Amino acid sequence: MVPEIVAENGFRLRGWELTDRGLLREVATDPYIPLITTVPAPYSEEGADAFVRRQWMRTEIGTGYPFVIEAPDGEAVGNVGLWVGELPLRGAATAGYWVAGGARGRGVALAGLNAVTAWALGELAVPRIELYVEPWNTGSLRTAERAGYRRETLVSAHQVVAGEPRDMWRFARP
């Protein structure tokens, strides 16, 4: 089960709910988020429900912990995830995050990443967390650095985005 985690500045992390369709409706129109996630684009309620059920399944089968980032007013404004499926093989979990366009610039991603990182390193005793960011994505690069992640190396063709292999910076927290 995905726990609720109190984050800084009044944000909190919680599991996905079927009532989070509004967040998915907004990010389905983002030019980038649907390319690097399984957020349904174009948006449909059936696609949104399937997305939420996939998040539940990831926790049930032990591959990850997807969290909604909730603002102090209760609005769902983003996502942060910890993926642990390869932890036994690689000795590292992977983190990732995205924020709805209307909530950017408010510290949402940083609050979410800090909270999930502290939980993973503390309660779960994960020895290392990695995250990957495209070189042009200055907002995400800054978030990773502000959360204490170290930029390690540019990984060539790390992820396929929009049908093309993309280089990504690997960041890590031991």
TrEMBL record:
Pfam families: Acetyltransf_3. One of its GO terms (molecular function) is protein-N-terminal-alanine acetyltransferase activity. InterPro entries: Acyl_CoA_acyltransferase, GNAT_dom, Ribosomal_N-acetyltransferase. SUPFAM superfamilies: Acyl-CoA N-acyltransferases (Nat) (SSF55729). One of its GO terms (cellular component) is cytoplasm. Signal peptide: none annotated. Keywords: Transferase. Residues 22-174 form the N-acetyltransferase domain. This is Putative acetyltransferase. It comes from Kitasatospora cheerisanensis KCTC 2395.
